[in-house]
Design a protein that fits this description.
The N and C termini lie far apart (124 Å). This protein has a two-stranded antiparallel ribbon. A two-stranded antiparallel ribbon has the order 3-4. It has a domain of 88 residues. By secondary structure, the protein is mostly helical. It is 56% helix and 9% strand. Strand 1 and strand 2 form a beta hairpin. It is rod-shaped and about 120 Å long.
Length: 149
């Protein structure tokens, strides 16, 4: 324990060693606080820049929402449909209910011309496949039908 107590009594150029260590630690803490404040200032500046950018983007989003609302106005869309597509509003006599669709379909259906019977199934076609050695090409040749019945 005497060795430990000697550290408190040891002197360097008339100043006790423990006082010298204390002064160095205080200066180190002061330096650390100054550096921290400088970093804090940079962070505050960066945060204010980000807040400004966010405000600008929110203004742009608001302007775009207003523009979308103007472009989606029903009157404008109707005018464009009439002007450029030749469309017009649906007349009341062209409206139908779901229940009446079958009746409308039967009334406007056209009879099918020709034989009403289902067409006969076509005979299955056969083909021969030849694999050649020239760049590994595959040639498909349809089989020739024989007319013998």
């Amino acid at each position: 324990m005497n060795g430990f107590m000697r550290l408190f009594e040891q002197r360097v150029r008339g100043i006790r060693l423990i006082e010298l260590v204390g002064v160095v630690l205080v200066f180190a803490l002061i330096l650390w606080v100054c550096v921290s404040k400088a970093r804090e200032g940079e962070d505050i500046r960066r945060i204010s820049d980000l807040d400004r950018q966010i405000a600008e983007e929110q203004e742009a989003v608001g302007a775009l929402k207003i523009k979308v609302a103007q472009l989606e106005r029903p009157g404008r869309l109707e005018q464009l449909a009439v002007t450029y597509l030749g469309m017009k509003p649906v007349e009341p006599n062209h409206e139908a209910r779901l229940e009446s669709l079958g009746e409308i379909s039967r009334a406007t259906a056209r009879p099918v011309a020709g034989n009403a019977a289902a067409p006969a199934a076509a005979p299955a076609a056969t083909a021969t496949v030849q694999v050649g050695s020239q760049d590994d090409l595959i040639a498909v040749k349809p089989a020739v039908k024989s007319e013998a019945h």
